[in-house]
Structures
1.
Amino acid sequence: MESLKSRKLEKLPPSVRFDGRILFLTEDPALLHRQLAGEDLAWTPAIKLRDDISTDEITPAYICYYYDETLGQFPYLGLKAGSEFPVVRGSVKQGGFAVSVSGKRRGKGSSREQSPYAETMAGIRLVIAENIERIYRENCQNLGIFTSTDFSLLERLRRGEAIPLSVFTAGEGDITRGIIEYGGLFQYNLARLQGKVRVPVVATPKRPMTLAEKILARHWVTDLAADAIGVPYVKPGDEGFVRTDIRFSHEYVTPMAAIFWRDYVGQDEKVVDPGSIFFFRDHLTFLELAMTDERKAEGLLDVALELKKKQEEFAADQGIHLYGELPRLGRNMVALGSEAICHSKMLEQHALPGQIIIGSDSHTPHSGAMGCVAFGVGTTAIFNSWLTKDVRIKVPPSVLIKVVGHPPKGITAKDFMLQILRHPYVKSGKAIGKIVEYAGPAVQALSIDERATMTNMAAEVGAFTGLIQPDEKTVDFLVRERGMPRAEAEGYLDALFSDSDAEYEEVITIDAEALRPMVALPGDPGNGLFISELGKQVKVDIAYAGSCTAGKKEDMDMYARVLKEAADAGQRIHSDVKFYIQFGSQDVKRYAEGRGYLDIFRKVGAEIIEPSCGACINAGPGVSYDRETVTVSAINRNFPGRSGPGQLYLASPYTTAASALAGYITAWEPQRIESTPRTVRPAP
Ligand code: SF4
């Protein structure tokens, strides 16, 4: 810290020069081939630029197994022009390009920071597009890549003009302007540490606040250099930094953040407060069982295993707790699973009411079930938080989702969520980026595990985060699961509630009484239907019961409730179905073992798998390998390709287990388990 405070730091000069060529990402593959071969295109608006370039096209998922400057070999490898993929390994870097130009919605899709990092490592310093997606644009700015929607710059760049910095900062707020002027988030934070910049003071007058706003106000950083936090009030739109209580990341992100640490801070420097940082080896533990031979032959399994090694090394160097993988045993040294999925462990052991938690994963809101503000961030934000313990924020507006009435028997939090996701307000994307507070008697009646299904799936809502007011159930959980003295647990609830007149941008009410067991049709979690509305019998090939969403203790209770009834009746999983049950953590496994669930699962023929993200991230037993395979799964999202190329229906734990027994998608009806011959295949 002391060496950083005295490190020489300058703002960028008032104008910048971009020495290098301009690459137009065109629809016409021939134009791309010509540029990559050395020809500079004369710009005319008649050239049709590619729209909707996703981060998946900039860096396809398997490229994200790389985490360092090697990524500079790969930008645009997945870019489709016509029916071709014209960019090959190394071609952008070798082309000497400094500017990359495309059409509308540049950088849509996944928030992966590997995409702009690959671009910058290939030499790209300026991205020009008709419009640019928010997260990708922020990631660019954090990494020091300039962005613009002004195509008139192209002529000036051609003439070799220096471009005033003000062109890139015009219209930006103070913080973003500072990040651009200092050349990235790390440099800006260094300026904060050195007292060279002051984040504008938030002076919101007295107002009623939501639970989330109260938590954000308590954690508001007023002076980083003086270590001062807390303001009385915040309101939507306030910008600044909030102090985090916990920061965690997994093997997909930690290695790249570690590279940033080495390059920007220094290999031998120590992270601030390592006791509040956690790492997880959870996403790719079983990858070797799911990766195709073709990819293995390309060496990608070895590359992916590097992620594990790099994370382990950094954790050991820094004294950071790593929830790792179980020891590899046997002739083939195949991994046996993880200690825990990150979100499962956060909720089980670490999250507390009123905290702010950041994680390198979109389902970080899982811990909101505990009554805290938990949200996902990118690699640069995680890396910076190792230094500053804080994270940049603009207070989002809030949406209140109330679930009222008594749900019929067998209706779970997953059914609540599939109903919420098909609500027009949510389905049309109006909740994107907002804080979702779940409330109402049907939510209060849920256990903490079931509440976590709802806060976890705030990610599918597209929300900034989701949370639920902590209450007696929270206290009971802390006492029962963590052995916390009751008085201490009750102390955490102090002032943690939304004011009765707090402002919500929208209030949605869901009637639990009217719900019936639901599924979401393949393609999107918002494709929810009552099973009774399916209109046809959908046969099942795979049933998957696991993940952070559905690998908790109460999920195991639900699987066991259905399967015990079958076991007692002498029934087994349908002969055409493979049924996988995977725990969210070793704690959950011990719980299931202690209650005799493993015997029940085995008796009916389910395959039991050690904890890991596994099939949920297309990296473990339970994935599909062709388009025709039909899966019913208790996971949280079913975007195309999520768990393989097949058709994936989302459902509750009860429905998943009942369907595995029946061989087709069916709701669980106690005492009515039956194995029925299947007659209808769904349309591919
Ligand atoms: S289980 Fe699935 S949703 Fe949960 S963290 Fe892992 S990959 Fe993400």
Note: DSSP finds 29 helices and 26 strands in the chain.
2.
Amino acid sequence: MKFDIDTYLATVAPLDDADNDDDAFLERPLDDDTLRCLRYMHDVEHHTTCYLRDLLVTSAHEDPEVTSFLAMWAYEEFWHGEAIGRVLDRHDVTARRERIFATRRRVGRDRLRTLGFMAASSVTDHIVAIAMTWGAINEWTTQAGYLRLAETAGHPELARLLRRISRQEGRHIDFYAAQAEQRLADRGAQRTTRFALRHKWQPVGSNVMSAEETDHLVRHLFGGDDGEQMAARIDRRIHRLPGLDGLGLVDAVRRTTCPSASSVSPRARHLRCELVSV
Ligand SMILES: [Fe+2]
Ligand SMILES: [Fe+2]
């Protein structure tokens, strides 16, 4: 898998949503579950700048290809948050800077998290492999979530917007997955990354949003047969990365969150217990 950073840099742009008909939401508002998912997505997209902060205190800052991507990644994610914010505006839901301010206050200054990244970077040479793999998984789940919400919301204008966002998420996937594959060629990186994911991975945004909101998002987007198939597809992609076969991360979270999921396997329950205890 190859990723051409120069091609990406030449095509980086704010989300093209100038032709979106925001007034369509006044005529036909979104349902409460969809709006709740959009609030989550807005807050997490706008938290990207904080994820960037945490990555830049690690040895990732030594690689100019990685930092070139990360700068543009944060830029594109910002505009995803703004686009979703305009949809929330149309439903009289507080969005953008006022909402971001409240989110940051709720999360706190989060200095311990940043120190954790610094400490991890000083004790392992594989922090970038972990971060790139983590990024690939988060982008895979994010893109799948947008596409699923585009289907479940039953609103053509929202579907158009979410599909546009998901196309840009696809370019983020290409970068992170290519980096992960390359860095996981090292057996030590495989072992360390597998350990970190096994013990620390949680759905993207779960460090920012409450457990209730995270569970709602997982239930709404990963519930039912379609959600099960989506989770299985993402897990298959994770398992194809060197050294990560059989992790079952997404399925484990789905099984323990979605009431309609088939009975929880002992392994999934064990993994979920580890995830919620970190
Ligand atoms: Fe995004
Ligand atoms: Fe993304």
Note: The mean pLDDT is 92.
